[in-house]
Amino acid sequence: MTGQVRTVDGRVAGRRGQETRQKLLDCLREMLSTSPYRDVKVIDVARMAGTSPATFYQYFPDVEGAVLEIAEEMAKDSVELKELIDGKSWAGKSGATTSEELVDGFLAFWRKNDAILRVVTLGAAEGDKRFFKIRMTVLNSVAKPLADAIKELQAKGQADKAQDAAAVAGSLISLLASAAEHQKAFTSWGVKVKDLKPTLAPLVYLGITGKKVPR
Amino acid sequence: MTGQVRTVDGRVAGRRGQETRQKLLDCLREMLSTSPYRDVKVIDVARMAGTSPATFYQYFPDVEGAVLEIAEEMAKDSVELKELIDGKSWAGKSGATTSEELVDGFLAFWRKNDAILRVVTLGAAEGDKRFFKIRMTVLNSVAKPLADAIKELQAKGQADKAQDAAAVAGSLISLLASAAEHQKAFTSWGVKVKDLKPTLAPLVYLGITGKKVPR
DNA sequence: CGGTAAGCTGACGGCATGACAGGACAAGTT
DNA sequence: AACTTGTCCTGTCATGCCGTCAGCTTACCG
């Protein structure tokens, strides 16, 4: 699919080149997590990687191009998220467990990729199609299987058929994403981080099954 | 409270100065809604306002400073949002209406201030205290009265007392905020924008009362 | 009309960007 | 070991934006 790694001017990158390229990506990722996106400069990334700005431009058209690369790597990792839904049960108490694990797993993934997801989210919100697509890949890795699960429940009469499964799944995933992005906000509302899961999980359960969590 | 408007070097701005300042803010707002935040340059804003970059720096320390100004204006407007909750009833059918109006009003506000809220959200996510505070002001204008409403319901035994009212209110407002920010995402899930309200409103109702929407 | 403070800008040093040509280097060939 | 070839890196340069300052213009007031 991706073929070989190429430089901006079309050369094929060899072993050494790929190492340099990767080091630049790593340093950029590091920079993104320590300074505002707007202030990330090519020269800083290059300096941190022990190389020169010119080298950076050998491998990436600009900062955004390199960020996209990092984001795509992350998007690939996001396939693991569908394991949070696939083969899980939503019936009774096990349903409550499923929704707790979903919340936990999703928040953990977001926390792990905090910095890059922030930039992806901004790019998507600004209407950049490439970032938008990446964000959708990540969210879909959960939203798609979740929508399927809801449809299945609806078929079995265990969920409200009047609700659009895709819309419900999307809303709930949005909820998780925004909670993940703004954990700090909750703290300032006087909500401890450990209270977050017990709050989100019932909401998810409620949204999907339309029933209160069993005790 | 704010006293007089002052230039960066301490002079008091007069009529003409305030006009220029305002024109710069207006142009910046315009730029934010048409190009990526990262690419907004002082020189472009100044050019659009028919003045010079030096003038911009008379009134604002940098682009971020000016953005903060715009954001603060918007935060003031957000007090109107509390009308979406205050004095509304959550009982029975009127509760369903309340939650629909809440969703509608909130989404409309977010849409109206789309561009600036995007930047505020990014700044907050990156840990900038000033942006964070502004975001909290906006969200609190709904979350606070909502939490109060939930507490009242709990006292009357019409809502689950085991739930932390502030946490529930926060989660629901987060849900609305993220849905507002990513309306495009829903479209790509095959969810029409008009389906969004009928999906979100029951979720809100459900989250607050713990009951299914009455028909 | 002169004084004073507000308002604006040209010009400048500094730094990031992005392009290129050429030197350094590794690996294989003779 | 010298040579060749293709990869890889960097010095350098033109360009353009940033952020500051001195100094000019404008408005107001006694």
Summary tags:
homodimer, about 220 residues, mainly alpha, Arc Repressor Mutant, subunit A, Tetracycline Repressor, domain 2, about 70% helix, about 0% strand, elongated, DNA-binding
Structure description:
The structure is a homodimer of 215-residue chains. Chain A is an all-alpha fold and 215 residues long. The first copy, chain A, has 2 domains: 1-61, Arc Repressor Mutant, subunit A; 74-209, Tetracycline Repressor, domain 2 (Orthogonal Bundle), CATH 1.10.357.10. Helices cover 68% and strands 0% of the residues of chain A. In chain A, α5 (92-112) crosses α10 (193-209). Chain A is elongated, with a radius of gyration of 20 Å. The model of chain A has no long low-confidence stretch (mean pLDDT 88). At the A-B interface, α6, α7, α8, α9 and α10 of A face α6, α7, α8, α9 and α10 of B. Chain A binds a DNA duplex (30 and 30 nucleotides) through residues 7, 11-17, 20, 41-43, 51-55, 57-58, 61-62.
Largest sheet of chain A: none
Radius of gyration of chain A: 20 Å
Quaternary structure of the protein: homodimer
**Structure classification of chain A:** mainly alpha
N-end to C-end Cα span of chain A: 49 Å
Number of domains of chain A: 2
Number of helices in the DSSP assignment of chain A = 10
CATH A-level architecture of the largest domain in chain A: Orthogonal Bundle
Shape annotation of chain A: elongated
Low-confidence stretches of chain A: none
Helix content of chain A: 55-70%
CATH topology of the largest domain in chain A: Tetracycline Repressor, domain 2
Give a topology summary.
Two copies of one chain form a homodimer.
Chain A (H helix, E strand, L loop, with lengths): L14 H18 L9 H7 L4 H7 L3 H15 L14 H21 L1 H12 L3 H27 L9 H17 L1 H6 L4 H17 L6
Chain A binds a DNA duplex (30 and 30 nucleotides) through helix 1 and helix 3.
